[in-house]
Design a protein that fits this description.
This protein has one domain: Rieske [2Fe-2S] iron-sulphur domain (Rieske Iron-sulfur Protein). The longest helix has 7 residues. The termini are close together. With about 110 residues, it is mostly beta strands.
Length: about 110
């Protein structure tokens, strides 16, 4: 596994905007914070490639994870595992390891 970490921005930017996006070795990645925990995931719906730019974050009572909801067709994905929770998506999204280091948000390159 890669030990290379990509700096996506200041933690303050995550607080201000609610999310940070960036390129991690050719993958479009979004980072959000939910209940004090950072989550980094592929910034595209596996159903049709739509970016999660205006996506809602939610909780799912049927799973132990936070959820990102695709703004186009409403597909729901687990923030912890990337699993597709509802149609029209059936394939998962990629999850990335993420950390806050010295007030910066960094994501591990795949």
């Amino acid at each position: 596994m890669s030990e290379r970490w990509i700096d996506l921005g200041a933690a303050a930017e995550l607080i201000d905007r609610g999310r940070i996006t960036g390129d991690v070795d050719g993958w479009f990645v979004m980072v959000v914070e939910r209940d004090g925990e950072l989550h980094a995931f592929e910034d595209r719906c596996s159903h049709d490639g739509e970016a999660f730019a205006d996506a809602e974050l939610d909780s799912d009572p049927t799973t132990p994870c936070g959820v990102v909801i695709c703004p186009r067709h409403g597909a729901r994905f687990c923030l912890s595992t990337g699993a597709a929770l509802t149609p029209p998506a059936y394939e998962p999204i990629r999850i990335f390891e993420v950390r806050r280091i010295d007030d910066r948000i960094v994501v591990r390159a795949p």
